[in-house]
Write a structure and sequence with these properties.
This protein is of the alpha+beta class and 658 residues long. It contains twelve helices and 30 strands. Bound molecules: 2-acetamido-2-deoxy-beta-D-glucopyranose (6 copies). It catalyses: L-seryl-[protein] + ATP = O-phospho-L-seryl-[protein] + ADP + H(+); L-threonyl-[protein] + ATP = O-phospho-L-threonyl-[protein] + ADP + H(+).
Length: 658
């Protein structure tokens, strides 16, 4: 009896093994790191190169396919499957991505009829959208050309019998450590892992993406209800298809796990092959360094066409080096409700700023450079490069950007209270302690820019309209469009003069000199503006009061310094603090830059309540000079002045130095 039991259990175990082996041989479960060992059907330009599966190369309008030769038998199953693979897309050109690739489940391995370019080698003009195709694909599309208008050039789509996706979303992944979604560039030359899971009982398809080193995110990129039993035949082949157009990309698969019915074995990322180096047939890769970027920012005056060429390279390099979030145009389009006019927060010479709402509820401000604003492009490169490296609570945070057909969009945290300028002159009255809080906040941000970062960052356009206020009325410095970056200790050559009248130190307009002390001068003008509640230059006032510094100095000389404090405060301020700030503002406004305090000094005056020692001698004061040539920028509309204006509400001067 015991023997019979043993025999029985042996038979059960043995048959279990046979079933398992049959499953494995059916191609129902496998893991590949080296595709030389995989049993693949390959056609078109696809090859296996040193163990890597390469779908496309630099051949134009070509397709490549690779399918597991053994079909999967779905008979009497719920069609559940899970798969995980690692891919990398290396575009031939730095500015275009080329076409894309797809994970395909088809009733045949032979997809040679599939057209190149936007059909991704899966469908053609005659069979597209035919139910006889029985094809399911997850496309990793890097070109928007053929699809619906709103499609971005970086999306993941679910294709059923047609290249026109039934669902499609911009590529991104959920960062569990930060609790937010980050966009992901498919053609980033980086290895990306993707999980495709289909639960046939629930009829639920999940697709999840993440950079190779990132563990599987807890939230999928998309989770959709789909009934694959209506599409699949009993026997289906699993594989990949890729295509090129006039723009080419090299598409690699570097690891693949599949399981039918159960959960796929997770890929061991240490076993996933690296990308070949140097990339084949690839344009020269220019070494990235902060110095190159800084150099290019400084080369602001160089002719535009020359600059634009470099621009692409800088951008690419920078994208990898600093990698702030890249938003898709579609996300921003939706967030701003199609860049509706009623979402405009402010407008300036280079474009408009819109309010946006991301799907997760985050509010953003999107600065969009207007078409053909050539001047603007240079400023923006400077702005992104500068801001992406900075982190200080009193600096407006750059959340990301989007690049599209020569258009650039910058995404910032949204500042619900608009600009200091609007708040001061049109909004609610700022209390004394709020004013002091804003000044100390901006001072600490400037100290950070001047002394605490790897390179010296000169803002060069400090003014009330570039200070934005968050919901707690914290002042944050924004608009780095005119910023300049240099090494500590480096002496800058004069190039061109930028800034805003009233905040520009006299040596800037006469000598074209810019350094930390020119920022200090502007900060001084800002202190006076906030304390006195009036602009540095106000032509509507009496001659004596037109230039704020002159007026404060004359009041100071006759012992009436406190008379200059904003009358809107109705006496509700601390006298000693007001004196300190007014004197500090005057100290920053000295004609001789050497006599001005550094930002470090300024923060100490503020923290330790040290009263600056100052005479109000008019000959020592740097009276703002109105330059010879100036470009007037239209101020943002009077009607919208209560909302944020990141832009020129005074006059910005932009002209070449001598
Ligand atoms: C791409 O690969 C195919 C097939 O291996 C080959 O015939 C073709 O010459 C390659 N194209 C280029 C540009 O290397
Ligand atoms: C599949 O199911 C059908 C009926 O639902 C049954 O007749 C057949 O034996 C099953 N086949 C296998 C291999 O289980
Ligand atoms: C899409 O393809 C077209 C035609 O090949 C090309 O001009 C364009 O640059 C491509 N776009 C991207 C983002 O690669
Ligand atoms: C399109 O694909 C079908 C197979 O689905 C094939 O019969 C047909 O010849 C192809 N058409 C072209 C123009 O290649
Ligand atoms: C695909 O075909 C279905 C009918 O079979 C039709 O309703 C649908 O509009 C077609 N889609 C496209 C994009 O042509
Ligand atoms: C798919 O995602 C949903 C939502 O995150 C989750 O509830 C479900 O368990 C996932 N299903 C599979 C098969 O991973």
């Amino acid at each position: 009896m015991a023997g019979a039991m043993e025999l029985l259990s042996f038979l059960i175990i043995a048959s279990f093994h046979v079933i398992l082996m049959a499953l494995a041989q059916d191609g129902n479960q496998f893991v590949h790191y080296d595709f030389r060992k995989a049993d693949l059907y390959i056609d078109g330009v696809a090859t296996i190169e040193d163990g890597r599966l390469k779908l496309t190369n630099s051949s134009k309008r070509a397709t490549g396919h690779a399918f597991h030769k053994t079909p999967v038998n779905f008979r009497n199953t719920s069609f559940s499957f899970t798969t995980e693979f690692v891919f990398a897309i290396i575009p031939d050109e730095s500015t275009s991505y080329g076409q894309g690739m797809a994970f395909v489940i088809a009733p045949s391995v032979d997809l040679r009829y599939g057209a190149a370019t936007s059909y991704l080698g899966i469908f053609n003009r005659t069979n597209d959208n035919k139910t006889e195709n029985h094809i399911f694909a997850v496309e990793l599309d890097t070109n928007a050309s053929s699809e619906a208008l709103e499609e971005s050039d970086n999306h993941v789509g679910i294709d059923i019998n047609s290249i026109i996706s039934v669902y499609s979303v911009d590529a991104s992944y959920f960062d569990d450590t930060k609790g937010l979604r980050k966009s992901l560039v498919l053609a980033s030359k980086q290895r990306i892992r993707i999980w495709i899971e289909y639960d046939g009982e629930q009829r639920l398809l999940n697709v999840t993406l993440a950079p190779l080193e990132t563990p599987k995110p807890s939230l999928p990129l998309l989770s959709r209800s789909i009934d694959l039993s209506k599409i699949f035949k009993e026997q289906m082949f699993f594989g990949f298809s890729g295509s090129t157009g006039t723009i080419k990309s090299h598409q690699y698969i570097l690891g693949w796990a599949l399981s039918i019915g159960g959960k796929a074995q997770s890929l061991d990322i240490s076993k996933v092959l690296d990308l070949p180096r140097p990339p084949p047939n690839h344009m020269p890769v220019i070494l990235a360094s902060a110095a190159t970027i800084a150099f290019l920012i400084i080369a602001g005056g160089i002719a535009f066409f020359y600059h634009q060429k470099r621009f692409a390279e800088v951008f690419e390099q920078w994208e990898q080096k600093y990698s702030p979030q890249r938003f898709s145009f579609r996300t921003l389009y939706k967030a701003t409700k199609g860049f509706k006019e009623n979402r405009v927060l402010g407008a300036g010479g280079f474009g408009k700023v819109y309010k946006g709402d991301l799907p997760d509820g985050t509010q953003i401000a999107v600065k969009r450079v207007s078409h053909g604003a050539k001047q603007g492009m240079q400023e923006y490169v400077s702005e992104i490069a500068t801001m992406s490296r900075l982190g200080h609570m009193n600096l407006v945070q750059l959340r990301g950007y989007c690049r599209r057909k020569g258009e650039l969009l910058l995404v910032y945290e949204y500042m619900p209270n608009g600009s200091l300028s609007d708040y001061l002159f049109h909004g609610n009255n700022l209390s004394w302690s709020q004013r002091v809080h804003i000044i100390t906040g901006v001072a600490s941000a400037l100290r950070y820019l001047h002394d605490d970062t790897e390179k010296v960052v000169l803002h060069r356009d400090i003014k009330a309209s570039n200070i934005l206020l968050d919901s707690n009325l914290n002042g944050k410095l924004g608009d780095f469009g005119l910023a300049r970056v240099h090494d500590h200790g480096e002496i800058l050559q004069p190039t061109r003069v930028v800034g805003t009248i009233g905040y520009m130190a006299p040596e800037v307009t006469t000598l074209g000199v810019t350094n930390k002390l020119t920022d200090v001068y502007a900060f001084g003008a800002l202190i006076l503006e906030v304390v006195c509640g009036r602009r540095p230059i106000d032509l509507e006032r009496s001659l004596e009061q037109r230039i704020l510094i002159e007026w404060v100095a004359s009041c100071g000389r006759r012992g009436g310094l406190i008379d200059t404090v904003d009358s809107k405060l109705a006496g509700n301020f601390r006298t000693e603090e007001a004196k300190l700030l007014l004197k500090l503002g005057m100290l920053c406004s000295q004609k001789d830059p050497e006599n001005r305090p550094t930002m470090k000094d300024i923060t100490e005056y503020l923290q330790k309540n040290i009263m600056p020692n100052i005479t109000f001698d008019i000959t020592e004061i740097g009276i703002p000079i109105v330059p010879l040539i100036c470009n007037e920028m239209t101020p943002s509309h009077g009607t919208t002045s209560s909302v944020a204006s990141f832009w020129y509400d005074t006059i910005t001067v932009l002209f070449r130095g001598r």
